[in-house]
Design brief:
- It contains 16 helices and 18 strands.
- By secondary structure, it is α+β, with helices and mostly antiparallel strands.
- It folds into three domains: 178 residues, FAD/NAD(P)-binding domain; 172 residues, D-Amino Acid Oxidase, Chain A, domain 2 (2-Layer Sandwich), CATH 3.30.9.10; 108 residues, Alpha-glycerophosphate oxidase, cap domain (Helicase, Ruva Protein, domain 3), CATH 1.10.8.870.
- The strands form two sheets. Strands 3, 4, 5, 6, 11, 12, 13, 14, 15 and 16 form a ten-stranded mixed β-sheet that branches. Strands 1, 2, 7, 8, 9, 10, 17 and 18 form an eight-stranded mixed β-sheet that branches.
- A hairpin with a 5-residue loop joins β17 and β18.
- α2 crosses α10 and α15 runs antiparallel to α16.
- It is globular.
């Protein structure tokens, strides 16, 4: 993917597009893949970087949703389990089988959760990742050596999927591009084109070069997550909000807190949430919280009480109690939730998606969850075909391999998440002796990966590389701060930027990254 070439697609081409998508998160990019693979002329605009918002801040699980099973939402669980299977087949280099253990401390929990998880297995059917089973006290401790043993009676093991959300999103962007879509980051939609009472396109401002573009299309799709209502008001200024939102945070700890290969799942926290402690990239993610919020910043910040909540709950289930100083990174994300009764706790609101078409023809998709991104896109495109009077084409994404597809990417060692791109990346690393230099002594990321990210994955600023092409900001915020200037220098050489750009980008990143650290002063 090359941003300059993508810009040429909209600069020199006066064609009428079939589909314009606003929003470059999981939902928007899924739609771009679906639309382009059906043969429609498709362009996507993202105001920041792909996945800057909610889509890079998940618990990294491709799952059916155990808590929706508790709520009795069988249809959502069935749909998500089917989509989990599709994700696993189409992106095996990113989606992996992970065992989860529910620790049992009361006598009734074993049969209660055991039966519930057997139902989970049953719903997954042939697409199940492994059968659930009861564990003895000794077996539970073997799988989770650092579990709190006081009062522990055993556990229940089940299986679900784990993936890297931001890497998946970049691969989806590459898939969409290979299918013929134009996808552009740092392009802000400033208004909708509406000349005869019908939405006919968008006005877009390039945040990099300051240029403005008028893009005409048959259908405009609003897939902007928590910013959904902001775009809807561009269409209908008096539109009533259809979304509410909650904030969820995660803390990242050293692997020593959970040294095994299994995750911990706590079915019920003090606020009714499911709590996870999940091994990920040689660290441990603990989350999440559910805090109602009324403002939707692009870079949400964890509240002190949320951090305290996770530390407190993690301490109940880990033999070694984590402290504030043990936190490697803290990241917060906003959930787009379709409005229901204002008195309903956001922890109980479903992630099911809603499709809305305004009287002017703006098609909006809201709600949903990462695991069901593909089905959401299919549903949207089925509506878009009718709305835009497009020639009908069937959805093919159920069997469409995601860019990077590789059944045994583990052979590429620390480059495994690049999948089939790892071989080409290896060739790049041989072009310059410096490219194999590690960016940080404690991590495997190399200088050549920065070059790769700029040339092939549309990384435009150091944050793109440190937060979403690699995950260092999310794994170790201080380490990312330590190397940001080095990353900026390499990017500047690739992008033709000057010393002032390097200074500005280093400063900007450090201002963002400090909120990921436990010491924010």
């Amino acid at each position: 993917m090359n941003r300059t070439k993508m810009l040429a697609d909209i600069s020199t081409n006066t064609k009428l597009w079939d589909i314009v998508i606003i929003g470059g998160g999981a939902t928007g990019m899924g739609i771009a893949v679906d639309a382009a693979s059906r043969g429609y002329k498709t362009v996507l605009f993202e105001q920041s970087d792909f996945g800057k918002g909610t889509s890079s801040r998940s618990t990294k699980l491709a799952h059916g949703g155990v808590r929706y099973l508790q709520q009795g939402n069988i249809s959502l669980v069935l749909e998500a389990l089917k989509e989990r299977g599709i994700m696993t087949r189409n992106a095996p280099h990113l989606v992996k089988n992970l065992s989860f253990i529910v620790p049992i401390y009361d006598w009734w929990e074993g049969p209660f959760y055991g039966i519930g998880l057997k139902l989970y297995d049953l719903l997954a059917g042939k697409q199940g990742l492994g059968a659930s089973k009861s564990l003895s006290l000794e077996e539970t401790i073997k799988h989770i050596p650092t579990i709190e043993t006081e009062g522990l009676k055993g556990g229940v093991m089940y299986h679900d999927g784990q993936f890297d959300d931001a890497r998946m999103l970049i691969n989806l962007a590459q898939t969409a591009h290979k299918q013929g879509a134009t996808v552009l980051n740092y392009m802000q939609v400033t208004s909708l084109i509406n000349k005869i009472g019908i939405v006919e396109g968008v006005e877009v401002h390039d945040l990099e070069n300051g240029e403005n573009y008028s893009i005409r299309s048959k259908v405009v799709i609003n897939a902007t997550g928590v910013f959904t209502d902001k775009i809807r008001k561009l269409d209908t200024p008096d539109a009533k909000p259809i979304l509410t939102s909650s904030q969820g945070i995660h803390i990242v700890l050293d692997k020593s807190f959970l040294p095994g290969d299994s995750a911990i799942m706590v079915p019920h926290t003090d606020d009714g949430r499911v709590l996870f402690a999940v091994p990920w990239h040689d660290k441990v993610i603990v989350g999440t919280t559910e805090t109602p919020v009324s403002e939707f910043p692009l870079e949400p910040v964890a509240f002190k009480e949320e951090i305290d909540f996770l530390i407190s709950h993690a301490s109940r289930y880990l033999a070694k109690d984590p402290e504030l100083k043990d936190i490697k990174s803290i990241f917060a994300g906003l959930r787009p939730l379709v409005k229901e009764d204002e008195n309903v706790n956001t922890a109980a609101i479903s992630r099911e998606h809603t499709i809305n078409i305004s009287r002017n023809g703006l098609l909006t998709i809201a709600g949903g969850k990462w695991t069901t991104y593909r089905k959401m896109a299919e549903d949207v495109m089925d509506q878009a075909i009718l709305l835009g009077n497009l020639p009908e084409q069937k959805c093919i994404t159920e069997s469409l391999q995601i860019h990077g597809y590789h059944n045994h990417s583990e052979i590429f060692d620390h480059l495994a998440e690049y999948g089939s791109d790892a071989a080409e990346l290896e060739q790049l690393l041989q072009e310059n002796n410096h490219y194999r230099n590690k960016l940080h002594n404690d991590y495997t990321f190399m200088e050549g990966e920065v070059v790769w990210a700029v040339r092939n994955e549309m990384a435009r600023i150091p944050e793109d590389f440190l937060a979403r092409r690699t995950r260092l900001l999310f794994l170790d915020a201080q380490a990312s701060i330590h190397i940001v200037e080095k990353v900026a220098i390499i990017m500047a050489m690739e992008l033709g930027k000057n010393e002032q750009w390097i200074k500005d980008q280093t400063h900007n990143f450090c201002e963002v990254a400090k909120y990921y650290t436990s010491n924010r002063d």
